[in-house]
């Protein structure tokens, strides 16, 4: 059958297509900037006739009704990475979280999505009947392979990207729904003087010709935009950011010096501005790949002079990093932090940075992010044996070279001055000083 004819035969309305979901199914609706909202909303309209359906999503920026529902018999939410919507569902007691390293997301898909339903937003088809996974190549082919039923939401606004396992053919879909909607937009976070100071310690250690990994947030943005005076940088990062796009447009990032996948920025997904999504569309300088490739420490390590920048919410005096869960409250996820922390240090000339402000300022006042021990119930994101450089506005220290006592002393010097004396006393109680 001609693919165009097959495409036409598979077209359904969203309300028709979601009838493929049965009681007890798990339905993956997408991730971050690539979520099948039209299908998700149509599925929710079936609330009164469905029971025990689990909704799988991650980093959802739109608060669909699934997330604000109190615990009920129709829908529950399941996630491997808590974004704004998933955090809301967690507060309502209607969400369960499963931790993983993104480099092993294929195994997670097989374990948790097997036999389920995939709602995947894709680009319009090319001349061969293949549609791109758009801004989220990172895992959606693994989702498709794990699920027994596939519904595609074709969005004219979804970019067509190049890379590995980035395409799905018309023949691989059960139904197709055409629904054009704007992609999720994440503006650059504000950068204050403290973040600029922290980023300056990192930027000064990034040599020309290095390959970088950055994430989302003000600190990563500060580092990214702080690299404007560097030369011949490369990218191998789970996420393509607005700052990376700007550096590519200025020629600062050109990927020429990369010894692994030279000439192309290797990424898993894009999340940012409409300009970023337009930049990704049919861009031969970008290589979108699954997490199993871009986050694999062995792949990361093949890039010489690899620089990884990640953030934390708290670090204790042993060097343990809490970046996704504090006191039992799930804020985000392990994600790719450990993958890149390890891969960077395996790289020839590579460095891994964990950065944060020294103190947290909120309505309750000021509290230290450097603590003697992590609060009860806190899950460790990155273990002390993996941590290399730690950075605050008060300096940058390589913990790898230090024993437990010197490590505690160095971390105390990175703390806000108002907390250092207390931390020294607490370190003595822990027999670290």
Structure characteristics:
Glutaconate Coenzyme A-transferase; 25 strands; alpha/beta; 433 residues; 8-stranded mixed beta sheet; 16 helices
Shape type = globular
CATH architecture of the largest domain: 3-Layer(aba) Sandwich
User: What proportion of the residues form beta strands (DSSP E)?
Assistant: 15-25%
Compute the number of structural domains.
2
Low-confidence stretches: none
Q: How many DSSP E strands?
A: 25
Any idea of the CATH topology of the largest domain? Glutaconate Coenzyme A-transferase
Quick one: CATH superfamily of the largest domain? Answer: Acetyl-CoA hydrolase/transferase C-terminal domain
- Proportion of residues in helical segments: 25-40%
Largest sheet features: 8 strands, mixed
User: What structural class do the secondary elements suggest?
Assistant: alpha/beta
Name of the top-level CATH class of the largest domain? Alpha Beta
What would you say this structure looks like, in words?
- With 433 residues, this protein is an alpha/beta fold.
- It folds into 2 domains: 3-178, Glutaconate Coenzyme A-transferase (3-Layer(aba) Sandwich), CATH 3.40.1080.10; 193-429, 3-Layer(aba) Sandwich (Glutaconate Coenzyme A-transferase), CATH 3.40.1080.
- Helix content is 29%, strand content 23%.
- It contains 16 helices and 25 strands.
- The strands form 6 sheets. Strands 1, 2, 3, 4, 5, 6, 8 and 10 form an 8-stranded mixed sheet that branches. An 8-stranded mixed sheet has the order 14-13-12-11-15-20-24-25, with helices on both faces.
- α5 (84-91) links the parallel β4 and β5.
């Amino acid at each position: 059958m001609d693919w165009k004819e097959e495409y036409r035969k598979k077209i359904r309305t969203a309300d028709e297509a979601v009838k493929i979901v049965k009681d007890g199914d798990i339905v993956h609706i997408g991730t971050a900037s690539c979520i099948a909202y039209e299908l998700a909303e149509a599925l929710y309209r079936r609330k009164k006739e469905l029971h025990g359906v689990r909704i799988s999503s991650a980093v959802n920026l739109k608060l669909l009704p699934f997330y604000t529902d109190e615990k009920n018999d129709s829908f529950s939410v399941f996630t491997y990475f808590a974004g704004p919507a998933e955090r809301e569902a967690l507060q309502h007691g209607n969400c369960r979280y499963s931790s993983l390293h993104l480099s092993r997301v294929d195994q997670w898909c097989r374990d948790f999505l097997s036999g389920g339903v995939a709602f995947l937003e894709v680009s319009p088809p090319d001349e061969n009947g293949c549609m791109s996974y758009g801004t989220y190549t990172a895992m959606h082919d693994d989702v498709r392979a794990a699920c027994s039923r596939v519904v595609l939401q074709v969005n004219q606004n979804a970019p067509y990207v190049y890379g590995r396992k980035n395409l799905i053919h018309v023949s691989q879909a059960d139904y197709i729904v055409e629904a054009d909607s704007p992609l999720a937009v994440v503006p650059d976070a504000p950068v204050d003087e403290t973040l600029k100071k922290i980023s300056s310690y990192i930027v000064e250690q990034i040599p020309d010709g290095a390959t970088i990994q950055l994430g989302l947030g003000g600190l990563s943005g500060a580092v990214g935009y702080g690299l404007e005076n560097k030369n011949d940088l490369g990218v191998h990062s789970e996420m393509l950011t607005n700052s990376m796009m700007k550096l590519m447009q200025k020629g600062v990032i050109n990927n020429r010096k990369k010894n692994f996948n030279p000439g192309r920025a290797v990424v898993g997904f894009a999340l940012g501005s409409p300009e970023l999504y337009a930049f990704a569309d049919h861009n031969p300088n970008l290589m979108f790949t699954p997490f199993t490739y871009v986050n694999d420490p062995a792949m990361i390590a093949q890039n010489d002079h690899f620089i990884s920048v990640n953030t934390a919410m708290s670090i204790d005096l042993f060097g343990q990093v809490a970046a996704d869960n504090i006191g039992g409250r799930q804020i985000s996820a392990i994600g790719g932090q450990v993958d890149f922390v390890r891969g960077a240090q395996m790289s020839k000339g590579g460095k891994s940075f964990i950065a944060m402000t020294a103190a947290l300022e909120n309505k309750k006042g000021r509290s230290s992010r450097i603590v003697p021990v992590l609060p009860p119930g806190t899950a460790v994101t990155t273990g002390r044996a993996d941590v290399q450089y730690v950075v605050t506005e008060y300096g940058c220290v390589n913990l790898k070279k230090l024993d437990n006592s010197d490590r505690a002393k160095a971390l105390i010097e990175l703390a806000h001055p108002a907390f250092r004396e207390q931390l020294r006393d607490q370190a003595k109680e822990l027999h670290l000083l």
